[in-house]
Specification:
This protein has 273 residues and is an alpha/beta fold. The chain has seven helices and twelve strands. Strands 3-2-1-4-5 form a five-stranded mixed sheet. Strands 6-12-7-11 form a four-stranded mixed sheet, sandwiched between helices. It has a three-stranded antiparallel sheet with strand order 9-8-10.
């Protein structure tokens, strides 16, 4: 099951249109989990609210007389191999302090940089319990990222031209191809209109502002907007926690370059309304 709904539709082309799925996947990191104590070690992968126990191939221990050193070096090698083979972006470690420090010392610097130590986990926990703890940590991390991105958006708005906030302003930036990053509140739905000829979206009006043809009603204009943004290669961040956008219609965008207005909007020809 996907964490957010994806707009349904039919497209014909030379390859599958995977941008909505890719955008959703990019918003969720792939976590590795190593739970370790004096007698056991368990490896897991957590991704898209699913958990899977991993059984890595045994790694040859180094030639040393210290059994603890051999065990930790072997586990570090297994974890490093899993990070590479499974594409793990972050690793969560739970271990007694004396084992934790020694194990981290065996990991390469790149793995250490992406390591999270979480004492709430233990090898005796059920997978469902592990998933709840990891999901809580992911939610907290996502909330922090959302807050940073929303504040950065409003900094760009205040600076003038670097970002826009509000549905009408975002629609204009989308039409001009200016959007780099689209921020939209999760679950946001708005009715609107779409031109079947040029696909321009608008809040109202039976005539398209760009080609003056009849527009058609659209039940979920936000889904249409997101789809067009993905078509333009924009990054899309669905904001689930931060409420800063709520006062601006729940949507905004960082721009590729400073906005100078929409030169394609022209007055209606004489005799047309």
């Amino acid at each position: 099951m996907l964490p957010q709904p994806v707009k349904t539709g039919l497209r014909a082309g030379r390859r599958p249109w995977l941008e909505p799925l890719e955008s959703m996947i990019e918003a969720h990191q792939r976590y590795g989990v190593l739970l370790l104590d004096a007698s056991a070690a368990r490896f897991y992968e957590v991704f898209l609210d699913q958990i899977e126990e991993l059984k890595p191939e045994p790694a040859a221990p180094p030639l040393t007389q210290d059994p603890t050193h051999r065990r930790l070096a072997s586990l570090a090698r297994q974890l490093t191999d899993l990070v590479r083979a499974r594409g793990l972006e972050r690793v969560i470690l739970s271990a007694p302090p004396e084992l934790e420090t020694a194990l981290i010392g065996h990991l390469p610097s790149a793995a250490q940089d992406n390591l999270i130590v979480d004492s709430r986990l233990s090898p005796g926990m059920e997978p469902s319990e592990i998933l709840k703890v990891v999901a809580l940590g992911q939610s907290q991390s996502r909330a922090v990222r959302e807050s940073v991105m929303v504040h950065r958006l409003f900094d760009g708005v205040r600076a003038g031209g670097g970002a826009v906030a509000g549905l009408a302003e975002t629609l204009g930036a989308l039409r001009r191809g200016e959007i780099r990053l689209l921020l939209v509140r999760e679950g946001l739905v708005r009715m609107g209109r779409r031109c079947p000829h040029c696909l321009a979206l608008s809040l109202s009006g039976k005539k398209c502002h760009y080609c003056w043809l009849e527009t058609e009603p659209v039940f979920d204009m936000i889904a249409e907007l997101v789809e067009q943004a993905l078509d333009q290669g924009c990054e899309v961040l669905r904001v689930a926690h931060d409420r800063g956008l709520d006062a601006h219609g729940g949507i905004g965008a960082e721009l590729r370059f400073k906005s100078v207005g929409d030169p394609s909007v022209v007055s209606a020809p004489a005799g047309r309304k």
